[in-house]
UDP-N-acetyl-D-mannosamine dehydrogenase
Amino acid sequence: MNFNTISVIGLGYIGLPTAAVIASRRKKVIGVDVNQPAVDTINRGDIHIVEPELDIVVHAAVKEGYLRATTEPEPADAFLIAVPTPFKAENGNDHVPDLSYIEAASKNIAPVLKKGDLVILESTSPVGATEQMAAWLAEARPDLSFPQTHGEDSDIRVAHCPERVLPGHVVRELVENDRVIGGMTAKCSEAATKLYKIFVEGECITTTARTAEMAKLTENSFRDVNIAFANELSIICDKLDINVWELVRLANRHPRVNILQPGPGVGGHCIAVDPWFIVSETPEEARLIRTAREVNDGKPQWVIDKVNEAVGKFLSHHPDKTAKDVTIACFGLAFKPDIDDLRESPALKIAENIVSRHPGRVLLVEPNIAELPKGKAVGGNLVDQQLALEIADVVVLLVDHKSFKSISSAHVKLDYLVDSRGVWEVR
Ligand code: SAJ
């Protein structure tokens, strides 16, 4: 099986880097996305998302003629589907995976499929989604045979190969990480492995589609459960007047203990989402996974309560002042350190809440962005970290950006500090 032309459906945070990296291996890549402005941007050799090094790879791939974007699918030898899998609300449960983007992508590519093609689902998906995708393809193309009915003899090969790259390191991790390849049959896995070998230097490990789906959900649930453990410890330690970061450092000296870092909650579009795909399918069994989600989702409110306490403490020490006179500074808005990505950020959520409720001034410090996003936080002022430290009465540390870590706690008003990341807190 030769892959002369590869099509990537969905040119977002995973699809675009994947398309560009394959194109950098001198393969003809057709990127497909419903977003016309994004398609136009890519065809100019530019990018519409923020990811280090991606601009250079996309620019080169487009200029050398290996990558082209379009809104309409075209024939190819392999199709990689990298579209979103958000939630939809159903019967009062608002964490049910929404496969409508996968369905739309399947129905879109079905007319251009031909015998011998490979279709790979990369989107993080609930168990069974790859089989469902194959069913949609078969329904649209009764003239072709698929693995669910024809096994190894099928005209079309179908596999699930979940992405596992860390935002901020996508270009490197796409090449270096091992890949789990879940074919609907052994031949499907073999074909998918051949495709990934074009650009993956890590190992390609084959399994079934269902196991590959579950592997991806398991990886992110593992991280979520471990972060929840750290977050729960931080709440317990606060009650017991113990510095949780010192505690974690000490416990981690044990050769078989490796506790993660507490924070203001879990953000991003993966770890806060994927565990629900397990919970929604097996609600009775996934008790720990659900509780971890609830612990992490509850952490922003806990931080907000701490900010209220700090404001109350400040006012009790300054009886001549009212809440209107108190200046609060929030340090960090991104969903994790040293990136500019504010999507699904617990820090932004906390800042927005403070801005919407606090009658006094709220200063926002986020060294990785030039302007505030449109939204509730807009009432706050984006200021430089030095100024915020000088004039704030209550300081709220939300993200452990490098530039905050370089500030000594000697320069922070520790009496009214809420430090959700343990950067300045001394107890
Ligand atoms: N966080 C903590 N404490 C920690 C580690 C993380 O509070 O000790 C928070 C972060 O601040 C952030 C959230 O968790 O708000 C998630 O950050 P992350 O760096 O753990 O993960 P993501 O969402 O950027 O990327 C994850 C990765 N998955 C795993 O590490 C198991 C990545 O490899 C996946 O490809 C990605 O999800 C995805 O696309 O699914």
